[in-house]
Amino acid sequence: MKQLDLITTTSNIEGWKIERYCGIVTHQLVIGANLFKDMFSGIRDVVGGFAQGYQKELKKMEEVGLKSLSEKAFIKGANIIIGLRIDFDEISGGGKSMFMVSLYGTAIKGIPIDETKNVISNKIYSDTLEFLVKQEEFKEYYLNSRIKSIKTVNSLLKYEVDLTSQVFLYACSLENVDFSNIFEQIVNYFSFVPSKSISDFITSDTFLNFNTSNFKRIIRILNEIYWLDLSVIVLLFESSSFNSQVRTLTLLDCNKEYYDSDDIPLLKSIASKIENEFEQYPLYVDKKGVFGKEKKEWICPNCLHQQSLENATCGSCRYDIDEIKLKAKKKSVQLRRMAKKLEELTTKI
Length: 349
Description:
By secondary structure, this protein is α+β, with helices and mostly antiparallel strands. The chain has 3 domains: about 5-120, Translation Initiation Factor IF3, CATH 3.30.110; about 125-225, no CATH class; about 230-349, no CATH class. Helix content is about 45%, strand content about 20%. The chain is built from 13 helices and 8 strands. It has helices at about 50-75, 125-140, 150-160, 165-175, 175-180, 185-190, 195-200, 205-210, 210-225, 230-235, 240-250, 265-280, 320-345; strands spanning about 5, 15-30, 80-95, 95-115, 120, 285-290, 295-300, 305-310. Strands 1, 2, 3, 4 and 5 form a 5-stranded mixed β-sheet that branches. The protein has a 3-stranded antiparallel β-sheet with strand order 6-7-8, with no helix packed on it. A hairpin with a 2-residue loop joins strand 3 (about 80-95) and strand 4 (about 95-115).
């Protein structure tokens, strides 16, 4: 994620000239990453004041909220947030307690001022110039070249070069042992990359056409960086390919760092799409036997081969349609419960 130059609670900023006001940015966070993982097992109440774990969770919520606020400001073209306010609230119900944090501020575009001359600074430090030149060199060279070593990936990270597709392809080209050895370094790189770049790659034909082994490898990376863009999931379910829809269903198993009120309509939309898309499968046809007797067969939605009713698994591509439909049904129920619970919680903020 691109870092802002400044986030402050004040409305005045020394050393900067406000070039443009970009608008108000807000964010409401219900709880950390494990909200829905723990939803049905219960959430522990904290008794006896601010225990260490209690403080840690509040700090985590604040960090996640600031990260989201920074992303929203950056999208608006801002590099500074002024007038930051952070409010914590506790909500209790059903014998359980939850904490919420609300953050808001004003996003602006600021230009640094030369304090000695009181004019807009046009100085560029030598190390900054060297960094930008190196950044451009890496981007130009590897934009159309294949990455062959983790050393290159680390250099791309050092100079903040976003080459998402090339690094994903490099990760998928490795043997299992090699991939395991450099997994953390790959994750570090994608932790820097903007979410939009990863989402663009996920919607590309390259990703959807990966073999099963590479697909699972990328899912592992996405889990580590908490990538789950619900708007992308909605888009992917528009695909007419059954295989793409099954893979999109698998993407919903990825981790998401936090949920907010904006996710409610997306969760409901995805649940509806799952129900509509997977309920229609499989399609059936009547086939005449050797002696003219008709028998019913089902058509595999993945490879389109006809299969006997006795076979739950496609004999050609090995898809188990009943297992996939059961997973889809469970996922749609889970998403609707998540949307309902999130709706209840966010209305109390």
